[in-house]
Amino acid sequence: MEREYCLKVPPEAAGERLDRFLVCQSLLVSRSQAQGLIEKGKVLVNSVPRRSSYRVQSGDLIVMQAPPPFQEIVPVPEDIPLDIIYEDEDLMVINKSQGMVVHPAAGHKQGTLVNALLNYSVHLSSVGGHLRPGIVHRLDKDTSGLLLVSKTDFTHQELARQLKAREITRRYLALVHGVVREQQGVIDAPLGRDPRERKKIAVLAKGTAGAREARTHYRVRERYAGYTLLEVSLETGRTHQIRVHLSYAGYPVAGDRVYNCRGNPLNLPGQALHAFQITFRHPCTREVLTFEAPLPKVFADTLSKLRC
Length: 308
Description:
Number of domains: 3
Strand content: 25-35%
Structural class: alpha+beta
Number of helices: 6
InterPro entries: PsdUridine_synth_cat_dom_sf, PsdUridine_synth_RluA-like_CS, PsdUridine_synth_RluC/D, PsdUridine_synth_RsuA/RluA, RluA_PseudoU_synthase, S4_RNA-bd, S4_RNA-bd_sf
Helix content: 10-25%
Active site: 140
EC number: 5.4.99.-
Radius of gyration: 20 Å
Largest sheet: 9 strands, mixed
Domain RNA-binding S4: 16-81
Catalytic activity: a uridine in RNA = a pseudouridine in RNA
Order of helices and strands: EHHEEEEEHEHEEEEEEHEEH
């Protein structure tokens, strides 16, 4: 007996292929299985059949008819400590630790930020579906720093609007290989799925299918022997944008296991990338708020050693 699955595309997933989007959701399906359902007309986007190559848009409503044994991941509360920078009745600002996945997915069913949030609060927005309660945007597993969490659907929708309109400012600190000579600069290079390794993101030529505009601003904070500490801000918010852009510019993020070909001489547990500051307008009070999070100890200790 078939079951109907309803999925709403969050802002951060906009631009993904339809088949890939389905695979990345709570349904444990392979890409070939997803493509088979799409070809049979079992997947509708806003009540219209689409091809596997269709690029989903923020707010798209996807309905899929699928028989067992398609399984769902159902997030459960887990007693995991949270570093809460700010909280009121509408939202929270969380300092995510390095190594924590934001929401459950295939291969990461437990130990995520969502599991911790469900244990902490019953008041979380439902806009992102049962897999992403409260989650407005994401950080990579090994990127630490500030994340917005919404408690109400109104707050979620307004924060998502601000993200899409580029009204939220997010600043990062990145330790990169090499000594960056320019004091500041902009990396303007379209990003999309790597045609050779589909799990990776790559810089693509303008006009290439799947290429999306991406701009990263940076300025030098400190220079060391063989490394540079950069302050980075995003004009766009693409998957792995900072990591791919900096690697493309010749300055890969230290500790990055995916986009860094220079090894890990500093023995870092993951990429040295920290979302240290976020500025946004509170959806209810309309006050402009700015929050900062200190560097993780391993990051701060590494900088101290480089300064010696």
